[in-house]
Amino acid sequence: MPATPTPNVDATKIQFASNGYVYMAPAVGATLPTVVGDGKASPSGYKSLGYVSDAGVTITPTINTDPVNVWQSAVPVLFNVTSAQFAIAVTFTETNINTTELFYGAQWVEVEDAGQPSGTFRLDLSSTPGLQEISLVIDWGQGDNLNRVVIPRAMVAERGAITLHRTSNQEYQLTIDALDANGTLGYVLTNQDMSGS
User: Fold this and answer.
1) Are residues 53 and 163 in contact, defined by beta-carbon separation less than 8 angstroms?
2) What CATH number does the domain located at 20-105+133-190 have?
3) Of 73, 71, 51, 36, whose CA–CA distance to 149 is shortest?
4) Would you say 49 and 22 are in contact if contact means Cβ atoms under 8 Å apart?
5) How crowded is residue 139: how many other Cβ atoms within 10 Å of its Cβ?
6) What are the sequence ranges of the domains in the chain?
7) Which residue blocks in the chain are alpha helix, DSSP H?
8) C-alpha angle with apex 33: 101 to 82, nearest 5 degrees?
9) pLDDT tens digits for 149-196?
């Protein structure tokens, strides 16, 4: 009886995301990174959104299709793409200017007292809010394996509730959806060798 061939497997290619960062920049004028980076420094022109909850970041690419059915077959003969989505779900745990402005969709302005800065900052919530268009970068890695997702254009699609609690920190839960950028939703960079099997 011939020997069963050994599957081509490599346990060193099992990856974890033991650390990572999320960065943001205004979509207009952003210089999109083309290298994976060092896993520590923010891309040029991007600001860090600080600590993320230990749930990490969820990246969900979605392709929705409709089946094409024909008289001659009981199963579809083709699928047609009806929509595509690339969504990022993340919960930020730092209360800083970048996370709060992104969460509320408005900007902080220092209140003046008799023409002088007062040390009090105000963020106005509009009854007809505008939607901010951003560019997003997510970095993660384990050891020397580094990865980066770049989304040229995106908007906040959903916001969670902020819970004020005596023993729990405030969290800013966001779902951010990629927008079309000249036929692309974004791209993934890695320093792992993907040239072989």
Assistant:
1) no
2) 2.30.110
3) 36
4) yes
5) 27
6) 20-105+133-190
7) 97-104
8) 75
9) 999 999 999 999 999 999 999 999 999 999 999 999 999 999 988 886
